[in-house]
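Entry:
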Amino acid sequence: MKTFIRNSTGRLAKYIAISFVLVGFFSCEREIPQRELLSNYEANNYSEVFTVFWNGMNSNYLFWDQESISWDSMYLAYKPKFDSLDKRGFSDTTQNLCFQYLADMTKDLKDGQYALQFWPGGDVYFENKLYKSYISFIPKLFRTQRTREALPDTLFDYVINNNYLSEFDYGVYRNFNTGEAFQIITGRVTKGQKDVLYTSLNMFAIKAGYEYDYATRPPRPVITNLFNDIRNSRCDAVIIDLRNNRGGNMEDINFLVGQFTSKPVLF
């Protein structure tokens, strides 16, 4: 589900998107209640941004029974802070505080798929870093691992590359609209007599990376070789490593899973 809070005055953030995965079990006998679409609401001041955001999380976030934070306490603590932002007048500093408050309210959530995305139409300073027009805050990833743009940037990449994989290869594609970088790592792992294909995906943008022609380290040949090995059964098994993967494009379902079948599948 995506909730967009849109500013009609042009003075606040153009869009604030709160994205999280809704997981449920459906049957023909159960009626699924209709959730309120918060994208129908326009926020004309910071107080309204808070109200829509708080209500949206309160009614749509599925894991409150698993969380230790009190969302009611967040209302009492942060409603006055957002009200005070309206008294400051519009400025980059005020926008920075708005995003900081939203991030602080959700930084202790346990859901690894939760993301707070912010399009301010200007510059945002967050955790001593400058972001141009777009920032995505993911509590489970932001402070522990930023998007990998080159190898070996992290200990994880270094260990996998040098100790486990043969035929190591990787590709990187950057989305210039969001600033996010998609990275695919491939190789082989030998386990006794077994030949195992390995791929690590930091997010799902496989098809977008495959179709992009101007990357410094293009993902297309990496993806092509991986898919050819799968289709031609040049392996005994496949490991798809999704640790720290925060989701992504729905089109990747067909693009990736389709490599494992030779005929259409209805799902």
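Confidence is low (pLDDT under 50) at residues 1-30, 143-153.
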